[in-house]
Amino acid sequence: MTRCRPARSDLEQLYRQGKWDASLVEEALALAENSGEPCDWLNLVDISQAIKGLTLRDWQHVANHYSANRYASPKLLLKLINLIACAETFPALSTAERASRRIHLLSSAQSSSINCIRDLLQSGYLGTRLSHYPCLLTQEESLRRTLSANVILPSRRTLQAATELQVLTRPFEELIRHGLGEAADTRSEPRRPRVAVVGNSPAILQSHAGTAIDAADLVVRFNTVSADPGKFRHTGSRTDIWVMSPSTPLSSCPDDARGIIVSGLNSLTRPSFYWKTLPTQGRYLSECPASRWHELVACFKAPPSAGTLLLASLKSMNLDVQCHGFTRCVSEHEAHGNHHADNQARSLRHNWEAEARWLVDCFP
User: CB atoms < 10 A from the CB of 3, how many?
Assistant: First the structure.
């Protein structure tokens, strides 16, 4: 029996809900090629990048569509230029090849204010302006001015924030090693560095693990962190690295945190509203490796939670990783629906059953 091809709204809903069947990419590609609409090509890029990782062949296929389309979207142009400008997206590509592909794509760009206004109205605000892309704002001025033919040129303050973001950003392992290096000076005996990863499950409030957590060389916490001294005997009080989802306000960052990891896929280079506030913290910034994200997506058939993504990223670093405040079976999730530090319910986008099995296998 032939499966019905989903409509655009169905694809977008499946993507937002985290129901990432392997066929979702193929269906997004078929929809984009059939309709030719910029919004469908944009969805294809997002879905491909999130589920399997964008290949250079994928990028070129969408770029060819842009070049052949007389009224292509400025939003699609910005996304394609941003992807080819990020060294992390296609690490094997040389600087010369990146420049060549970028120049060829820009030569086909249509500088029409009517098209820009139409894109603003039809495809939403986010991702339509150059100021949404911190990676592009740190490229050479000639590229920014070329792009400004289709989008609004950012302010000097926005350009400065992008530069500060770039200066503060560190690779994941470098950020972790830097935090552990500060603790190594106080260790009295040689041993593997000990990292306490503290989740938000209410089950931790019965653990009496506070002393063990605070004795670790590095303490990592997520999103809303409880400052209630009455809970410290279970949760501990230190925070060295704070992991935030893009929806978490920066005011939630613990005062003693020395570094911030933004959870998700390529969160520091993708278009967003929150990136301009990140440098104001003055702390080192990082994100989990994209390779870990894609490994977990293949395992869970859903986007990984921040906790699991962080643990997978630490797993290959030969560290003594200790998990606290993580649920290890579905029945625990049902008993503890909310976080211990706030009343936020668990996200429905994640495959909690598969994550619980993974946690038991990798961190018994």
Answer: 7
Instruction: Region of 262 please: left (phi>0), alpha (psi -120 to 50) or beta.
Output: beta
Task: Give the mean model confidence (pLDDT) for residues 295-311.
Answer: 96
Coil, strand or helix: which one is 306? Answer: helix
- Kindly report, residue by residue over 307-321, the tens digit of the pLDDT: 999 999 999 898 999
Look at residue 3 and tell me whether its pLDDT is greater than 60: no
Tell me the sheet residues that pair with 244: 262
CATH 1.10.8.60 fits 168-362, yes or no: no
Contact 286, 169 (CB under 8 A): yes
**Phi, psi of 219, rounded to the nearest 5 degrees:** -120, 125
CA dist 286 → 17, 182, 258 (Å): 26, 18, 12
The Cβ of residue 337 has, within 10 Å, a number of other Cβ atoms equal to: 11
Burial class from Cβ neighbours inside 10 Å (0-12, 13-18, 19+) for residue 249 reads exposed
Residue 361, classed as helix, strand or coil, is helix
Do 353 and 330 touch, CB atoms closer than 8 A?
Answer: yes
Task: Give the whole-angstrom CA distance, residue 38 versus residue 64.
Answer: 13
- How high is the pLDDT of residue 153? 78
Rounded distance between C-alpha atoms, residue 322 and residue 146, angstroms: 50
The rounded Cα 225 to chain-centroid distance in angstroms is 20
d(CA 318, CA 12): 39
Q: How high is the mean pLDDT of the chain?
A: 88
Which tokens hold the place of 199? 């989740």
pLDDT digits (tens, 9 = 90+) for 242-269: 999 998 999 999 999 999 999 999 999 9
Residue with structure tokens 């967003």? 272
Q: Strands, DSSP E only, in 160-270?
A: 194-198, 218-222, 241-244, 259-262
Q: Residue 222: what are its φ and ψ, rounded to 5°?
A: -125, 140
Q: Rounded distance, CA 79 to CA 69, Å?
A: 16
